[in-house]
Structure of Retrovirus-related Pol polyprotein from transposon 17.6:
Amino acid sequence: MALFKISPIHKVACIESVNNVSSENSKRQIDWATQVDLNHLEDEQRLKVMNLLSKYNSVFAQNISDLEQCDLIKHEIHLSDQVPIRQKPYRVPYHLKPEMRSQINVLLEAGIIQPSTSSFSAPVILVKKSDGSYRLVADLRKLNAKTVPDNYPLPNLTEMIDNLSGSNFFSTLDLPSSFHQMVMHPDHTKYTVIATKFGLFEYKRLPFGLRNAIAGFQRLMNLVLAGLNEF
C-alpha cells in the first residue's frame, strides 16, 4: 500500500523543495517505488518527486523506532498537589501478554519510555485498532483529574479552511505517533509512570491520553511552523 498519493490539479512546471535540511548523511533507505503511487504523473515530474523523496529520507518514519524528537519545548505537568497516585497494573489476558511485552520493548528501544522508581503509577491497557493491531494506552484519568488545565488556544478549523481560499495545491503531512515526537521535561517524567506486570516505566516523550497533551503539542507545532502559515 502506498504511503501517499500526490494529486496535482493541473500540470506542474517544476517541483521545488522548501526544506533546507538534507538527509544526505542519513543511513535510512526507503524503497519509494513500492511506497508511493506516482503513475498519474508525467515521467519528468515522477523523477523529480522520487529524487526529492530520496534526498529527504530522514524525515519519513516507517516505524516507531525511526521517530526523532523535537525538544524546542519540553512538556510539563503541573498538579494541584503532590500526593502520589499509585495504581496497580490491570489484569492482562494471557494471550495478550506477549503483545504487551513486545510493545514495551519497542518503546524502550525507541527511547520513548525508561524504567522508573517514581511513587506515581497508572495502569495500562491494550486497545485494539481498526487494522487489528493493538495500541498500548495508559489510563491516566486519576492523574488528569489533578492536573492544572492548560488553556492554550487551538486552531479554528473554519478559519484554517478560509485561509486556503485561492490556493491551487494542497498538501497534508501525517505525523505518526505525533505525541511521541515531543519531549517530556525531565523533572516531570515521574508523573507519567505506567504500571505493568513487567515493572514500572515512565515516558520520556509525551504520552497519549495525558491532559493538556493536545494543548502542549499545538504550542510546539505553532513554534515549528512559525512563518509557514501565510498563503
